[in-house]
Amino acid sequence: MVQNTKKRGEISMSFVAGIVLLLIGFGILFLFYQSLYKAVDINRTACHTSVIGRATLPALAQGYVPLKCTTAKICITGKKSEKCEEFLNSESVTTAVVKNSPEGINQIQAIYANEIISCWAAMGEGRVDVFPDYVQSQLGLGNNEPGCVICSRIAIDKDSLNQVDFSKMDLVKYMDSHTLPGKKETYVEYLSKNKNAAPVRIGEDVQIVDAEGNIIDSDDKWNNNKEAEYEETAILFAQLSDTPGYFEGPLNGLKTIFKGATISTVISPLATVYIGKTIITEPLAWVAILVAGGYQEYSIYKNRAFSAGYCGDVQSADKDKTGCSAIRTVHYNAPEILEYCGTIESIG
Fold this sequence. Notes:
By secondary structure, the protein is α+β, with helices and mostly antiparallel strands. It has nine helices and 13 strands. Strands 1, 2, 3, 5, 9, 11, 12 and 13 form an eight-stranded mixed β-sheet that branches.
């Protein structure tokens, strides 16, 4: 009897020890995943859920689903103890520490690229009606006024990164030549998802010709001020949508969403793009990759300029709709952002 009691005690102790080890294991896994899915990722998931929810609900319910899209604040620095001046009085700032060496430039470009992709994915890749009719009326948006979300603000602590050569930064080239983390496709391939869409290099002989054969002029103004290399950048999502037919006329509405774009592989369903004498995009190639755009004299430094977009059908609960969406880097400057946006619906 004593022996049986002893055995039961040993079994109980083993069971308790097993449970404790299991709980410790779960705790370690929880901490591991918590470190993987940081606040920015959690916020983007909440944002994406609200985007999908709004697009799939009937019109009467859409107004009760606010976008839960929080603007990420990212300070890029060479030292964890340093801070970015732009965020000194801000809360929920993510500090991204990179090497204060020539290697740091690729780490910085990776931060920009990943924020662009994260924003684009959260907003439904431009294929979801983020600002449906009822919401547009509530926000006071007109037919030619895009709704916008500021996904990220990125600032640079230049004093701690004095060994990084920012003139080597080429965000377009980086996103065209580097693959997404854990994927085989490049950033540009992910954004385009269309064999007719292609990145266009700044400085190439590019002409955009509409259906009538008219060459479309483009705005080619850049900020080459050295100090602009360190100015705060915003990752901006913009969308303009309407019922089918609105975008059928050449440049009708599309010029608005890609306002001021220097180069684009798609301007309208009826436009053709040439590099030299080579056609790179056939008519009706709906996906656009913009590598320069909307940048006025006071705007973003040219080697940090990147834009991409999608034009075509968008998912909407009420009716079939078409639309154009764009994601772009812009100088975090209210007058400039308002050049593109009729309203901004994001949590600062």
